[in-house]
Design a protein that fits this description.
It is built from eight helices and nine strands. The chain folds into two domains: 40 residues, no CATH class; 243 residues, Cathepsin B, Chain A (Alpha-Beta Complex). Strands 1, 2, 4, 5, 6, 7 and 8 form a seven-stranded mixed beta sheet that branches. Strands 3-9 form a two-stranded antiparallel sheet. The N and C termini lie far apart (87 Å). It is α+β, with helices and mostly antiparallel strands.
Length: 322
């Protein structure tokens, strides 16, 4: 064999051997890694691509009226292994009739608590199914500002760990579990107990500043309560309201922007979110899946349709001590 030909073959062989594996993947997958700062091992990269490929193709083939879809930071996980949308059956722990809330005629046609700086930025709960704690804390942060004039992030970790035995921590719970246990173990600022992404031990504290719920309301369609019918008034008078929604549809999982309508998601609720505002046409809700999901962590669902099961369950405080 001629020397120059042998050298050429060696060069080609070496080039192929050291060529970056990432170049074997399509551009959309490489762009996804860059956008979401993914640093996979080779095994993780293959697994992520296998998961994302089907989702990416589904999104490209799906055309929904008024809604756009997109891969987000947690899209590279199989939902069967992710616990971030777990909420148990609505077995109300304590209940009070919502007799004070009968009419919505004396409230503004549109409202958004973000415009009045009563809402902290969306967080990312990760694989822990503690959505009820995130939603409940978002509501109590409103009360903290209402009482003190200062918006301050409160401890979701404390709410998660100190709401048992009624709640199951990262395996799910209800917002009223947080309210009930805050009376004996008031919720403190986030710097008292930082979010770890999983279950931990309840840290007891009885020093200021803290939030203690003195009374709260639970509403459920299981008892015939008009959750959605009273939601606008409750938002206006009691701040952002934690509600339950169905997060299992592909529309919800890949939501990027727009208004989700009734026929675009289910009504079997499994996830807690925070209703921060409304217009005549839709509800504005804060999720806990990070800011890469949805409209920088928020989403909108059509009003008056029980879209995503929003008429199913709500729980909020009506008397708080700070």
């Amino acid at each position: 064999m001629r020397p120059f030909l042998l050298a050429y073959l060696v060069f080609i062989t070496c080039y192929v051997a050291v060529r970056p594996v990432g170049k074997l993947y399509p551009k959309w997958f490489l762009a996804y890694q860059k956008e979401h700062h993914k640093n996979y091992t080779s095994v993780e990269e293959r697994r992520a691509y296998k998961i994302l490929k089907g989702k990416y193709e589904h999104i490209r083939a799906t055309h929904l009226e008024g809604v756009t879809l997109k891969l987000h930071a947690d899209s590279d996980r199989n939902l069967s292994y992710v616990n971030y949308h777990v909420m148990p059956g609505r077995r109300l722990r304590a209940r009070r009739e919502n007799t004070l809330l009968t009419s919505s005629h004396d409230i503004p046609s549109s409202w958004d608590w973000r415009s009045y700086t009563y809402v902290t930025p969306p967080l990312r709960q990760g694989t822990c199914g503690g959505c009820f704690a995130f939603a409940g804390i978002g509501h109590l942060e409103y009360w903290f500002k209402k009482k003190t004039g200062r918006l301050r992030a409160l401890s979701v970790q404390e709410a998660l760990d100190c709401s048992g035995p009624e709640s199951d921590g990262c395996d799910g719970g209800l917002m009223e579990d947080v309210y009930k246990h805050s009376y004996g173990n008031p919720i403190g600022p986030v710097d008292f107990d930082q979010w770890t992404g999983g279950d931990s031990v309840c840290k007891h504290r009885h020093i200021h500043p803290y939030v203690r719920v003195m009374d709260y309301v639970s509403m459920s369609d299981e008892f015939g309560d008009p959750v959605e019918g009273h939601l606008a008034r409750n938002i206006y008078y009691y701040g952002p309201i934690p509600v339950a929604v169905d997060s299992t549809s592909s529309t919800f999982e890949h939501y990027s922007s727009g208004v989700i309508r009734k026929n675009q998601c289910g009504t079997d609720v499994d996830h807690a979110v925070l209703a921060v505002g409304y217009t005549p046409d839709y509800w504005i809700l804060k999720n806990s899946w990070g800011t890469s999901w949805g409209e920088k962590g928020y989403f909108r669902v059509a009003r008056g349709q029980n879209a995503c099961g929003i008429n199913s369950y709500a729980a909020f405080a009506i008397d708080v001590q700070v």
